[in-house]
TrEMBL record:
The lineage of its organism: Bacteria, Pseudomonadati, Pseudomonadota, Alphaproteobacteria, Hyphomicrobiales. It comes from Bradyrhizobium zhanjiangense. The keyword Cell membrane applies. Belongs to the binding-protein-dependent transport system permease family. Keywords: Cell membrane, Membrane, Transmembrane, Transmembrane helix, Transport. It is a multi-pass membrane protein. CDD domains: TM_PBP2. The chain crosses the membrane at residues 21-39, 72-93, 105-127, 133-152, 229-247. This is ABC transporter permease. One of its GO terms (cellular component) is plasma membrane. PROSITE patterns: ABC_TM1 (PS50928). GO terms for biological process: transmembrane transport.
Amino acid sequence: MAELKPQSAVSKMLNAAWVRPFLFLVFIVVAWDLAIRLFKIPAYQIPSPADVVAVLRTEWPELLRQSWPTTYATVCGFLLSALFGIPVAMLIAGSKTVESYVYPLLVFSQSVPKIAIAPLFVVWFGFGIIPKVISAFLLGFFPVVVSAVQGFKSVDPDMVDLARAMQGSRFQVFRAVNLPHALPAIFSGLKVSVTLAVVGAVVGEFVGSNSGIGYVMQRSIGTFDLPTMFAALVILALLGVVLFWIVDRIEKLIIPWHVSQREDVIFAS
């Protein structure tokens, strides 16, 4: 049997998790610049990548300072969505009665545009951090509940019966069987939730705030300062990627045994 040849340094670098997204990002930026040059798009419609990079370089301290309120509101709203979403999912998955009352209302609540009710939060709670946290919470809550309900309902009943037959208490059965089997689905919902929480925080900043990346974008739109607005979009994208990566790292630490954490996934042919 022939021995496998070790990978070269170039091959290892190309197989790194961050290289391919970075190369694709470079491709998008190059295509963006070429489209502006070929179609002669004016700067007041779409700024060039060079203008956006120049704003990021010169305004970086201000953008970094304005990103802190957005990050704080996003993290608080996300933590609240996890804190309330997982227990609600447990109640829905454990009781048909609770599911029949609560689940339809949750689905109905998602049809209401958050941008339409966000001004109410400003009226009720003022122009502080609370409206932004509530907006982030409302957008991040539903994915956590739906994924967690699916995870708790997918637990094998035979495993639960086996644990009960071994004289396990309800808490022991939950800790040893229900929760581990539901964790992969819960983390899937958390990863969706943390990115939507960024959107919710920005929505809250749009309707009533004097700080944050959303405020920077709104001010830039009012003055037609498109390079600054695109630079703010870059900051928001980076914020979402970093928060998603943090949740993904936590998932790898908590459930390293799950099939989703394998390096190679083999599909049957």
